[in-house]
Design a protein that fits this description.
The chain is mostly helical and 285 residues long. It has 13 helices and no strands.
């Protein structure tokens, strides 16, 4: 028996502690701030503690706190639906109505995600000019000497491993000793031509958010040896803006993945793309 159940059995009045109102965050972009304010308004109207909302939604309490404070956005629409459904069920049980509908919250979420991607890619879908957020450089993070030394050791080990792998791959397997032969200059763009065409159709149909979502998932999960093919496919489809978004998103991956992607681009002679990833990674580390 929990403490709450014990107090209810003893006849004490037990009420849910409502979520506290949060102060506005002027540092957030407009669409992100509007989504955070709307989600916080819905959470406060439920009259349920924040940690209990998180339990009902099946997510960590720190994740929900990040949504309500504006530190993060839900990963996708499914995460938002799960949080909203948990609050809606409790509100219906208490015979309360929520100030925002699920469709309205989805619309605000899509605008916030689109705003983030436009800021990262340095373009504004409406005007075609770089947005003001794209010109603001992030403040450099202060790291301790020990962390800098550990980073240098990891980078040196990765470069040495890549050099050894390149040296071993330079010797092809003789035809009489196997069927796994090294091919030089082959393009891996063909398997990604369909995805690139789908992204282009999203942009053409005004579904920029869906296109950015596909680009984000691709740049974050595609294996390093397939990344040059993704870039080549987008270029062949005339999606230069998508290429820039892919490169900047790939630069946010773990350091070993960034180095592997850079090595793969060098093997395909895409030196300029490799330089863009390294420059973006240096600004984000």
């Amino acid at each position: 028996m929990t403490f709450r159940q014990f107090r209810e059995s003893e006849g004490y009045a037990v009420t849910d502690r409502p979520t506290r109102a949060r102060a506005d965050r002027p540092g957030l972009p407009p669409a992100h701030a509007e989504f955070t304010s709307a989600l916080d308004e819905v959470a406060r109207s439920v009259g349920l503690a924040q940690n209990r909302i998180a339990v009902k939604a099946g997510i960590p309490a720190t994740t929900l706190s990040g949504y309500l404070c504006g530190h993060r956005l839900p990963k996708n629409g499914e995460s938002l639906d799960r949080v909203y459904t948990a609050m809606e069920k409790h509100a219906q049980a208490k015979e309360r109505s929520l100030p925002r509908s699920l469709a309205e919250m989805r619309k605000l979420f899509e605008l916030a995600v689109r705003e983030r991607w436009e800021a990262r890619s340095g373009t504004d879908t409406g005007a075609g000019e770089p947005s003001a957020a794209a010109h603001t450089l992030p403040a450099p993070r202060r790291t301790s000497p020990r962390r800098r030394l550990q980073r240098r050791v990891r980078m040196y080990g990765a470069r040495r491993k890549a050099a050894l792998s390149a040296g071993r791959a330079a010797v092809p397997v003789p035809p009489e000793r196997g069927d796994r032969h090294r091919t030089v200059g082959t393009s891996t763009a063909a398997p990604w031509a369909t995805e690139a065409e789908e992204i282009r159709s999203h942009f053409a149909g005004g579904r920029a958010w869906d296109a950015y979502q596909m680009l984000r998932n691709t740049a974050s999960t595609v294996p390093a040896h397939e990344f040059p093919g993704v870039v080549s496919s987008c270029r062949e489809a005339g999606l230069e803006q998508a290429v820039e978004t892919l490169l900047k998103t790939a630069a946010e991956r773990e350091i070993r993945a960034v180095l592997s992607i850079t090595a793969a681009l060098h093997q395909q002679h895409q030196y300029e793309d490799a330089g863009v990833i390294l420059a973006a990674a240096c600004n984000s580390w």
